[in-house]
Design brief:
Layout: E1 3-12, E2 25-33, E3 40-45, H1 52-59, E4 67-72, E5 75-76, H2 81-86, E6 87-91, H3 102-112, H4 118-127, H5 141-155, E7 159-163, H6 171-183, E8 189-193, E9 206-211, E10 214-219, H7 224-227, E11 228-234, H8 235-248, E12 252-259, E13 262-268, H9 279-282, E14 286-289, H10 292-299
Parallel strand pairs: 3-8, 3-9, 6-7, 7-8
Antiparallel strand pairs: 1-2, 1-4, 4-5, 9-10, 11-13, 11-14, 12-13
């Protein structure tokens, strides 16, 4: 497999942190192959503080790992000039000088990225309704997100990292970003770190879930509806489903609640995607697939 991004036993710790304190991220091993026939769009999900922005910073070569390695295109990522040209990292918290007008932000990006697409930048700036003369410091949070999206997509870098691109966007802006991602044609790898998981369901082909600095799940969103389900019914019938699931030796009960003789449970069927062994008991309860957002909330132990 032709690897584009490779992390091996990677850790990042705060400088001076005691050895007894867990790392901010890792140890983490991850391989992302190069996109060949077309774009590859990945989602990165997790609660606040899970390590999403840290992981993106390592891939972008802006952070040095304290253990292990991070390679992009076979080169050590940290502070490597070729990697810095290969990877764009943008987001609402990637600051530009407050006095710079938007036009200067885009001009600076054009000088940095050799494959910059000026026509795409202009089209997106107009679509997001961001005035070129407005100072960056005067933009709303949603407009700053839009500028980050414009820079990221117009950069046409082989690796495009969008850190919380949906922050502050209205419904039209979120739909515009989704349409742009679905319309990508050139081979490039896009990674979106976001809490807006409902917006990822149609756009990503791979979903990485971080929890407390660990990569806990690497999922195919197309399989989520088969793997993660909610069952509702009488307490007796739901208990029968849970018992049958435990007897299969696979899968997991993510949550279970009872009230006044009724019960509801969220289940991860694991590799038992066809649920053959559970069909008799599942037939006695109401079943529904979990949304991507609900599934990730359950996997990370609470609200995102």
């Amino acid at each position: 497999m032709n690897s584009l991004i490779s992390l091996t036993d990677t850790e990042l710790r705060y400088p001076g942190a005691p050895a007894t304190m867990p790392p901010v991220l890792g140890p983490l091993t991850l391989d992302i192959p190069a996109a060949s026939d077309g774009p590859s769009v990945l989602g990165l999900a997790g609660r606040n503080g899970a390590g999403k922005s840290t992981l993106l910073g390592l891939i972008a070569g802006q952070l040095r790992p304290t253990a292990g390695s991070v390679e992009v295109g076979g080169r050590e990522a940290f502070d490597d000039p070729d990697v810095l040209r290969t990877v764009s990292l943008t987001g609402v918290d990637v600051d530009y000088p407050a006095a710079w007008p938007v036009s200067t932000v885009l001009l600076t990006a054009a000088r940095r990225f050799p494959q910059w697409d000026a026509a795409t930048a202009t089209r997106l700036r107009e679509a997001f309704d961001v005035a070129p003369a407005t100072a960056y410091g005067d933009l709303s949070r949603g407009q700053r997100s839009a500028v980050g999206i414009i820079v990221g997509l117009a950069s046409r870098t082989p690796v495009t990292l969008l850190d919380e691109p949906y922050v502050g966007l209205d419904a039209q802006g979120r739909r515009l970003l989704s349409r742009e991602l679905l319309a990508l044609e050139e081979p490039r790898t896009v990674i979106l770190a976001t809490h807006q998981l409902a917006d990822l369901e149609r756009t990503v082909s791979r979903l990485l879930v971080l929890d407390r600095g660990q990569l806990t799940h690497d999922l195919d969103p197309a399989e989520l509806g088969e793997r993660f389900i909610r069952v509702t019914g009488s307490a007796t019938r739901v208990d029968a489903v849970l018992t049958a699931l435990r007897h299969t030796g696979t899968g997991e009960v993510l949550s279970h609640r009872e009230m006044a003789g009724a019960a509801r449970a969220e289940l991860d069927l694991g590799t038992l995607t066809d649920a053959t062994a559970l069909r008799p008991t599942l037939a006695e309860v109401l079943t529904e697939p979990l949304s991507t957002e609900d599934a990730v909330v359950q996997l990370t132990g609470g609200e995102l």
